Amino acid sequence: MFGLFKKKLDGSEVLKGLTDRHSHLLPGVDDGFKKIEDTLKALEIMEHAGVSDVWFTPHIMEDVPNKPDDLRRRFEDVKKIYKGGLTLHLAAEHMLDNLFIKRLANSELLTMEDNMLLVETSYYNPPMEFDGLLGDIMNKGYRPLLAHPERYKYMDFAKYKELKNRGIKFQMNLGSIAGGYGEEARVKAEKLLKLGYYDFAGSDIHSIKHLNNIYNTPIKKSVLKRVMQISQNQ
User: Fold this and answer.
1) How high is the pLDDT of residue 8?
2) Which of 40, 100, 154, 203 has the most beta carbons within 10 angstroms of its beta carbon?
3) Of the ranges 28-42, 59-73, 211-225, which one carries the lowest mean pLDDT score?
4) What is the CA radius of gyration of the chain?
5) What is the separation of C-alpha 45 from the centre of its chain, rounded to a whole number of angstroms?
6) What is the pLDDT of residues 158-179, one digit of tens each?
């Protein structure tokens, strides 16, 4: 076993060059970070770990109906205060629900580069007409990036293969390989890594405590190597 994140907290840069594609660092907009001071501290920890870029991806869903323009303004406020060395980006984690369908029709979405769209579903059930909705997203010119597929209990490896064959990108949660979401998610994440199905990685952090839990969990060397291969291929 290898202390994947313990050494990074000491500035050893174990995750050197990694782009964190999923975080809830934007303060005061969802169930993630609440105070700008905690956001800044988390960014400092991530920089010491070797992370180079961080995407702020706040929730947009029926229960948290954030508007893109509001999120952009809040993000600019953070950028004015932040003095560290990370490159910060803004997108959103879009729940595939009824609000998303309305926002998709109006192109009222927050994307990553190349119109890549971070999306999620319920952990227990797929959305109605899931496959058709993914087709609608792609027909509108967006490139779906599925957040933490290893956490979806309803998905099996036949479905993962089908999604990859359709060109759907996968984002792995670092907390999954650290066992933070249970044994089932950890085993699925390691297998998806071995198959080469992941395109990006992200912390999906919601708090300082969450970040420290991830960064201090021992991880197999072979798993760490595959994680870093993701960062090299971005």
Assistant:
1) 37
2) 203
3) 211-225
4) 17
5) 17
6) 999 999 999 999 999 999 998 9
Judge whether residue 195 has pLDDT over 50. yes
What is the spatial distance between Cα 162 and Cα 173, in angstroms, rounded to a whole number? 21
Judging by beta carbons within 10 Å of its beta carbon (0-12, 13-18, 19+), is residue 81 exposed, middle or buried?
A: exposed
Q: How many CB atoms lie within 10 A of CB 178?
A: 21
The pair phi, psi for residue 201, each rounded to 5°, is -125, 155
Single-letter code of the amino acid located at 149: P
pLDDT in tens, 25-39: 999 999 999 999 999
**How far apart are the two ends of the chain, measured CA to CA in Å?**
26
For 119, counting Cβ atoms within 10 Å of its Cβ (0-12 exposed, 13-18 middle, 19+ buried), the class is buried
Sequence length of the chain is 234
Tokens of 102: 């309305």
Tokens 């926002």 belong to residue: 103
Strands 169-173 and 143-147: parallel
Q: Going along the chain, which residue ranges are E strands?
A: 19-20, 53-56, 59-60, 87-90, 93-95, 116-120, 143-147, 169-173, 200-202
Sign of CA dihedral 40, 44, 46, 50: positive
